[in-house]
Amino acid sequence: MTLAIDSADTGRRQRRGRRVRIDERMALGCALLSGIAAAASGASPTGARLVDATLVALAVGVVTWAGAAARWWALGLAAAAATALAGDVVLIAFGGAAFALAVWVGLAQRSVGFSRVLIAGVSMNVLVRGETDLPLGVGVSCGVVAAALICWSGIRRRSHRTRRVALWVVGAVVAVGVLATIGAAIGAYGAQDGLVDGNRHARAGLDLVRDGAYAEAAERFDDAAASFDDADNSLNAPWAFAGRVVPIVAQHHRAGYELADTAAAAAADVADSLRSFDVDGLRFVGGRVDLANLRAAASALTTVQASFEGLRSTIADVESPWLAAPVQDRLDALAEQLDEVEPGITDAADAVRLAPHLLGADGPRTYFVAFTTPAEARGLGGFMGNYAVLTADDGRVALTDFGRTGDLNRAVDDPRRVTGPDEWLERYGEFGFTSGANGTTEPSPWSNVTISPDFPSTAQVIAELYPQSGGTELDGVFAMDPYVIREFLRLTGPVEVSGTDEVLDERNVIDFLLVDQYEIDQTDDRVDLLEDVSRTVVERVLRGDLPNPVEAAQALSPMVDQRRLVAWSADADEQALFDRTGLSGALPNLQGGDGVALVVNNAGANKLDAYLDRQLAYSAFVDQATGEVSGTLAITLSNEAPSAGLPDGVIGNYTGDAPGTNRLLVSLYTALPAESVSVDGEPILADVGEERGWTTNSFFVAIPPGGSVDVELQLAGRLALADGYTLVTRPQPLVIPEQQRLVAEDVEGRTLIDVEGTATQPTRYVSGDTAAR
Question: Which one of 149, 202, 242, 324 is separated from 83 by 20 to 30 angstroms, measured CA to CA?
């Protein structure tokens, strides 16, 4: 009877697994060392450094302790998983060694408690340090399964008392985790409305800031601050606090309360700053801007800028791979909206900060304003017909001179000398700037001063020429064309043209300045009319007829985008601001990518470019592996001008061409060198040059009235395509908008870019841009 009982009991023990004797002190000591090592791994299951170190140390220590009695195959699987997920040569070596030791333990069929605990400790430390390209959930799941196998196998082979204690501990941990999770869920549920409403109000406020509606934006940010504060109170309630120690739950809780806390403070600061920002106090009143108001506005915008930066920093801090996709998506959406708004706020803050200097706070400043007309094309856009000089001193701006280009040409009898920029002179010096005696200018350098499409270089030439033409030293140069005048009239109201019955407003000023005025056959009268309109607009702006600067800037921003309104400053900080905002009118930086642009200069001294139609088509074949690119640039120029019925100053010329013939200097700007150039199918030799990183091919064409010419360039070369294919275009701001057709394909026939439509401003296209404009 006794033998039968002993036999059954033995069978049950064999089925459950043989108990093993281990040195518990050794196991606990190894577990302690393993846990300490794991705590230094930087693993972040909750996002709180001290909590993470404690949890990781305890978890790895427990698994290591359990490993002293674990089955060799459970240890081997854990070591294999650690090796596969290591992602580092050193970690792979440790994981592989642990796996080999596990196999040896299995083959030897010995207890070897120290070897087992060593395998468990090394495997767990490799797992918490592993870095692979696999999704986070895969690595975590493998680690949890490996740890569970070791614990199940090792504790199962411990004594009955040990198993019972372990079961109670596991139950208690699970119960605490469940209660903490429930508390966090209650807090999150209570905060949900506040977070959603706060996010909605903040995004609405950001939109209003971008639109310049600062007073309305302040109200939205007040609402956002209140909503985020409510959410923060819910997330910091006592019952929600325990959720900070539960992995995964902790990340979501931390993201919520840190974002709510920071967003509430940031929204309140932004609201206060926007409310103190007196936009109307920045207007010209009696030709003067209050510099104290400018400095106060700069302080307010700087606070707004700092608040946005703080909010962005918090979003970056709470980001975690443990966050659920919907939560991460909301954070990403807010970050993207900040990306859209922050540059504008930064530029506005810098503009207001620099405005006192621009307005003569540190001493008088002198600015030259060029009024151009695209009816007679120049590289910048149009011929400079009139100019103005403005003087700023302690916030007061006065119109101190106004005249014609001819006045500047005739201002002195002595030759003038232009010394730079070197690249500008190398390309354009022959057009009257270095072609005089001993490298001096010819008598009329001002007639071609806007020949280049790059305004910073042109402005430096103007700044050097003006003191030699009877003027003073310049601190800055501006240029604008009739389309900018139209926007000013839209803001200030109509102008009555003296000596005529004309009343000009935004509806008819373009036709008058570009076409109708040239039907007045008396040149002096016509120039006087243009001067009258331009002078009146400038005087109205200085008098304070414009709306506040935000509304004025929004109205004029399309003109800046189209490079019809450009500016240059001798001050490096001011010029950097102009560069960032596009106000500098610089040729776009190719940044190693592809680019095409058409630039024409009128060579007949007439006004036929009001009738010039331009069609540009570019097709590129791209090998993204090698960077080799080949392309065809096709240009069609059509002259829609009549041959009779208009004054000689409009359709005549001094080149001996028939009336209505448009003679042009054509320059094709490309990133790639040209292998061939043809006009109407006939090969020609073009003058090859370079400007601001672009290759240029220039030549003259004569287009009869009602006729057209076709130009084609074959291009080939290598580009830097490590970040993908890009294509830059820069349409010249003339009267009739340029039409573009841009196509780029790779060697496998995939479409990279496919764009067609009207082009009005410089654009950088990237792979994937395929749409009609």
Answer: 324
